[in-house]
Structure formats: structure tokens, C-alpha cells
Amino acid sequence: MNPLSTTQPIEVDKGIIDKIDVASVPFARTPPRRNIALDAYRGFVMLLMMGEVLRFSDIVHAFPTSWFWRILSYNQTHVDWAGCSLHDMIQPSFSFLVGAALPYSIASRLAKGAGFGKLLLHAMWRALILIALGIFLRSMYQPQTYFTFEDTLTQIGLGYVFLFLLGFVETSGGCGFRLAQFFLVTGWPGPSIPRRVRGSTGRP
């Protein structure tokens, strides 16, 4: 015993401790930590979208000699064909964010006791909502419904279930990442390879 201590040790009967149901004791749970990089990237992409809504690119017409507004205007509009601006990166950025955040969502739901069937139904329901929202946004102020599937939300919804399956396999300790690499390598170059190589005269 420490002679300088003002508190006396408390002796507890070991039999009482054995009778306590540890599982019923409400321990303080540590809140899950968020990926700050994903949150910052998501906020940056939303800022680019707000720049389009506020029509910053129109200000350059009032200040044609300002390099600041020229740079801002270039990155708030799509390029015609060659090159790339920050505005062109909004759609692929959202697709990347969905894929990067999905393993965290799957791991969190698995830790809460959700099974594969429940997760799959949730992914299918979310995909349907994204597709419907994309079609709705493209059909606003139009005389008919446009099933063009060109909206970012629709494109994410069309691939969401397949992405979930890859993420579930990878999160469960499988080979989802290798499957994604396989599909990327074998599927991407295929449509872009021409059947015939044109010569310098433009004839096949």
C-alpha cells in the first residue's frame, strides 16, 4: 500500500464479479472514423457543381482581359473535344467516390450483422433510385420522358449492383480487386480497337 495515498483499496468478492453479465453492461462505443480525404474530395466536387449553378463562366464576358475569370470559366465548362477541364472531371469523380466509399459501407453493415441477401437488396434498391433520379432530372421541363441514361446518377445506378458484388467479395477477403482489374484490362480496350487500320490516305 502506498503510504502517501489517501484512498483505501476496495476489496470485491470474486464471486460477485463472476455473476455479472458482461454482455449486458453498456460499454461506450467508439464512433467510426471517417475517411477525411474522401470527404474533402466530395466537397471539392460539389464546389465545382455549385460553380456551374452560379454561372461563374458568364462573368468572363464582362471581364474579357482578366486571367482569373478566364481560368475559372475554362474550368467551369466542358471542353469541345480535345483537352480536359475540372468540369469534365465531375462525372468520373463521382464514380470514383462511389467505388472508394462502398467498401466502408459494406464493412460497416457487416459489422452490424447484416447478411449478403439484405445488403444485395439494399444495393438493388439504391441502384433503382439512382436510375430513376437520373431519368427524372433529364426529363425535367421536357415534353416527354427521356430514357437516355446519360445523367451521372443514372450511370452510377446502372453499375452499382455490379460494383457492390465486387466490393462484397473484396471486403469478405476474396479477389474482388483482381476481378475488377481483369474486367478493366480485358473489357476497356476491346471497343476501341478498330477492325481495320486506315492508311495515310484514309482508305481501309
Q: Would you kindly provide a written description of the structure presented here, covering whatever features stand out?
A:
There is one protein chain. By secondary structure, the protein is mainly α. It has helices at residues 14-19, 36-53, 67-74, 90-111, 116-139, 152-171, 176-187, 189-192. It is globular. The relative contact order is 0.07.
The helix tally amounts to 8
Number of strands: 0
What percentage of the residues does DSSP assign to strands (E)? Answer: under 5%
How many angstroms separate the termini?
96 Å
Oligomer: single chain
Helix content: 55-70%
Task: Estimate the mean pLDDT confidence.
Answer: 75
Work out the radius of gyration.
27 Å
Pairing-aware structural class of the strands and helices? mainly alpha
Q: Could you describe the largest sheet, including whether it forms a barrel?
A: none
User: What string gives the helices and strands in order?
Assistant: HHHHHHHH
Note poorly predicted spans. Answer: 188-204
Shape: globular
Entry keywords:
single chain, 204 residues, mainly alpha, 56% helix
Question: Brief overview, please?
Answer:
The chain is mainly alpha-helical and about 200 residues long. Among the domains are: about 35-75; about 90-185. Helix content is about 55%, strand content about 0%.
Question: Topology, please?
Answer:
Layout: H1 14-19, H2 36-53, H3 67-74, H4 90-111, H5 116-139, H6 152-171, H7 176-187, H8 189-192
Helix pairs in contact: 2-4, 4-6, 5-6, 6-7
